[in-house]
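Example record used in the benchmark description.
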Amino acid sequence: MIKSTAKKIVATGIIFGSLVFTSQAAFAATIVDTGYNDEYYVAQQMQYGDIAMGKINSASDKDWYYIQTGPNDGGRTMTLHLTNPNNYHYIFIVTKNDAEFVSVTDLNPGNNNEWVSFTVEANTRYNFGVLKSVNSGFDPNALYFLSPTIF
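Model output (structure tokens):
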């Protein structure tokens, strides 16, 4: 009797856990680079947990994205993770409002994949510019992935 009840509880827990995790992933969107986001003021909007997927199409290409923090976000930590194509080094710039640079902590120094964190202010627009490093080539067909999260 106890074993049967325990099995039911475990099975219910596994099913419930699967539903919770799969439903959370369903809320994240993949933002595809439109090609019209090369300027700071035409950045594509993102939400926390979204994944921007884009390409650096030329040596001078820059892709801009932004996220707007809410009234309860002040003092929280945002992390940005930029996954680069193999053997290419892309970097990103973080600014707020009207192009004021944001000081970030590099969590993965010296590697192709960039991962930074910073403390955000409430009700503020944060902009992320993805561009080719001056020390790297580029592949116009190689995808990068950018994802913002907040804790």
